[in-house]
Amino acid sequence: MPQGSQPDLPLSVRPDDQVLFVANCAWKNRFGRAEPSSLYVVVHREPAGSWTHIYRVVLDAFPGRAIVYLEAALEGERLHEGRKKALMMLERQTGLAVTAGASGKQAAPAYRQKMIAIPAMATSAPHHACHAG
């Protein structure tokens, strides 16, 4: 995948959920091997309440199939806090420095955040590279 590009979203989300792509990265799995991964922050909205999840998506060895890991959960609509937490997790995993921008908000020049509208049943297309997006 070209650097800075965003993979297709392999998560099923509701129309009123909010999705934020954080980055593509090389995430060390429990065996110490780097897995090409994509990080997302998703705000789920339900009548009973809202919550924010940080997901890591890894393409499986079977084409077109993804494995989704829930890396963290926050109560309520906390998109910006979720992004900050995802970037801190990414820094720990990859060793890439994440610095505060001039506004004091958590930012990383190598990463690009993007708000995307996702249909209710989005599917995934395989991607094979691992770069910060």
Explain what the structure shows.
There is one protein chain. With 133 residues, this protein is mainly beta. It has one domain (18-116). 12% of the residues lie in helices and 39% in strands. The protein has 1 helix and 7 strands; from the N terminus they run ββββαβββ. The chain has one helix at 79-94; strands spanning 18-28, 34-46, 49-59, 66-75, 99-100, 106-107, 114-116. It has a 5-stranded antiparallel beta sheet, with helices on one face. A two-stranded antiparallel sheet has the order 5-6. The longest helix has 16 residues, at 79-94. Residues 99-133 have low confidence and may be disordered.
Topology (elements, then pairings):
Blueprint: E1 18-28, E2 34-46, E3 49-59, E4 66-75, H1 79-94, E5 99-100, E6 106-107, E7 114-116
Antiparallel strand pairs: 1-2, 1-7, 2-3, 3-4, 5-6
Question: What gyration radius follows from the Cα positions, in whole Å?
Answer: 14 Å
> Which strand-content bin applies to the residues?
35-45%
Strand order of the largest sheet: 4-3-2-1-7
Largest sheet: 5 strands, antiparallel
H/E element order:
EEEEHEEE
Task: Give the overall shape, derived from the CA principal axes.
Answer: globular
Structural class, from secondary structure content?
Answer: mainly beta
Uncertain stretches: 99-133
First-to-last CA distance: 10 Å
Number of strands: 7
In terms of quaternary structure, what is this?
single chain
Provide mean pLDDT, rounded: 73
Counting structural domains, the number is: 1
- Helical content band: 10-25%
Number of helices: 1
